[in-house]
Write a structure and sequence with these properties.
Helices cover 19% and strands 43% of the residues. 26% of the residues are buried. The model has no long low-confidence stretch (mean pLDDT 89). The strands form three sheets. The chain has a four-stranded mixed β-sheet with strand order 3-2-5-4. It is built from two helices and nine strands, in the order βαββββαββββ. It has one domain: HesB-like domain (Hypothetical Protein Aq_1857, Chain: A, Sandwich). It is globular, with a radius of gyration of 14 Å. The protein is an alpha/beta fold.
């Protein structure tokens, strides 16, 4: 079981944590929303919950709650830039069975 970051995503997260001045890593989860059922919930990880799973990619920790892990196990997160204005995380989730038309939500 794992959720991983590409080198690009890990560098971006490390830079943002350094600018922020604190943080353990990246917290990734899911929540019910959108037309397909779930959306990705991404934030800084400032603390660990008792049941959180911690993975490490390129020196950056990825923290996932156990309920979300069932829906995102095996996922790779990339950070992509298509131009100066369009940049963000791209989620490659093998457990996603379908995506909505706008690409914001998925079903698992």
């Amino acid at each position: 079981m794992a959720v991983t970051l590409t080198e690009s995503a890990a560098q971006h997260v490390a830079t943002m944590i350094t600018k922020r001045g604190h943080g353990l890593g990246l917290r990734v989860g899911t929540k019910k929303s959108g037309c397909s059922g779930f959306v990705y919930d991404v934030d800084y990880a400032d603390s660990l919950g008792q049941d959180d799973q911690v993975f490490e990619s390129h020196g950056v920790k990825v923290v996932v709650d156990p309920e979300s892990l069932d829906r995102i196990d095996g996922m790779e997160i990339d950070f992509v830039r298509s131009n100066l204005l369009n940049q963000g995380f791209e989620f490659r989730n093998p457990k996603a069975k379908d995506h909505c038309g706008c690409g914001e939500s998925f079903s698992a």
